[in-house]
Amino acid sequence: MLTRRGEPVDLLLALRVAFWIAAVTALVGTMKLTRALALLTPRRPRRRGGPSAASIRAGLVTRYANALLRWRVFGGRPICWKRALVVYRMLRGEGEPVQLVIGVRKDDAAALHAHAWVSLEGTPLGEERAPEFRVVLVYPPPVTP
User: Fold this and answer.
1) Does residue 118 contact residue 125 with C-beta atoms inside 8 Å?
2) Which of 69, 81, 85, 112 is deepest in the core (most CB within 10 A)?
3) Residue 96 and residue 73: Cα distance in Å, rounded?
4) Could you give phi then psi for residue 44, rounded to 5 degrees?
5) What pLDDT, in 10s, does the model give residues 120-136?
6) 0.85 cut: is pTM over it?
7) Rounded to a whole number, what is the largest CA-CA distance in the chain?
């Protein structure tokens, strides 16, 4: 199976992304975000591939999540927090020390906008450009010496 760009699809990865979108949607709909994050953070990650491998993997997971969320099977339009939670869970499960980041900003009309993304060592993953938001939550919190 090929994408529109002619690239092969990793069907197993796409199915795992679909599973985690459904799980994230159910978890966040039934409990507080902090509890959902605790459940989504694996206790024993499998392996670690390094920052470049994490970036490549995040790009694939993000692309599949966006495509699946566009189908609206999981409700509504593609939502950044669902995508970010899926990327966070999948990369954490592979041993990458990624963090979920949530930020806010006000536009010229004083309307509040929020955005969620995943970062590795302070670098946003799966984003076209660095989000221009004031960070209000980082999970897990940075470790201070």
Assistant:
1) yes
2) 85
3) 29
4) -125, 95
5) 888 888 787 778 899 99
6) no
7) 48
